[in-house]
Amino acid sequence: MIATFLDRDGVINKETTLGPDKKITVFSNAAEAVKMLNKIGKVIVVTNQPWIARGMLTEEELEGVHREMVEKLAASGAKIDSVYYCPHHPEIHHKDVPDWARKYRVDCSCRKPKTGMLEQAALDFKLDLKKCFLVGDRTVDILAGRNAGCTTILVRTGEAGMDGKYEASPDYVCEDIYDAALIISGIMKGEK
Q: Which residue among the candidates 9, 137, 141, 176 is catalytic per the annotation?
């Protein structure tokens, strides 16, 4: 089985607002892209969410944001098969972190560019990562995909690879999630 892994912020939606009225604004063409990807295989979100380790968001609040995203896409007939998130952050020296969040201040195996989320999804869904795709807007996404053996696609929405955190060359670069879905569809049809 194959899957397309999607980063969340900057790929599916605009940056999510934090605070009491957390909202998620899905890009206008995201549902059409996800529907196209649904015809190819599983569609799985993999996202670093360090806001939890920083004490700015609880896991329950994050799950509410993800539920909203999944529901907005589902309303247009698009299906997200699963959402994997990393709540951790390796920096332990911040003094302003609430006590409840300190347990998330660890160097884990799931935070991209590490491959823990992708490997767990591969186990859960019996995926061959070498046949999977990863679509992201940051170098951390591209490096995670490369580290896992996936075909990587950088979108120009969100950070557009300009975060400069890692040196990571994607296999493809395109405008947005819809164009990424077209590329993946073309590859699967033997056109790319």
A: 9
Q: What is the DSSP letter of 15?
A: P
Residues of the domain holding 76: 3-188
- Output the tens digit of pLDDT for each of the chain's 192 residues: 899 999 999 999 987 666 556 678 899 999 999 999 999 999 999 999 988 888 788 888 889 889 999 999 999 999 999 999 998 888 766 667 777 777 877 788 888 999 999 999 999 999 999 999 999 999 999 999 999 999 999 999 988 888 888 888 999 999 999 999 999 999 998 866
Say what the pTM is.
Answer: 0.92
Per-position DSSP letters for 139-176, written without gaps between them:
HHHHHHHHHHT-EEEEESSTTTTTT-SS----SEEESS
| Helix then strand then coil, % of the chain, to nearest 5 | 35, 15, 50
Count up the domains in the chain and report the number: 1
**Among this protein's residues, is 9 annotated catalytic?**
yes
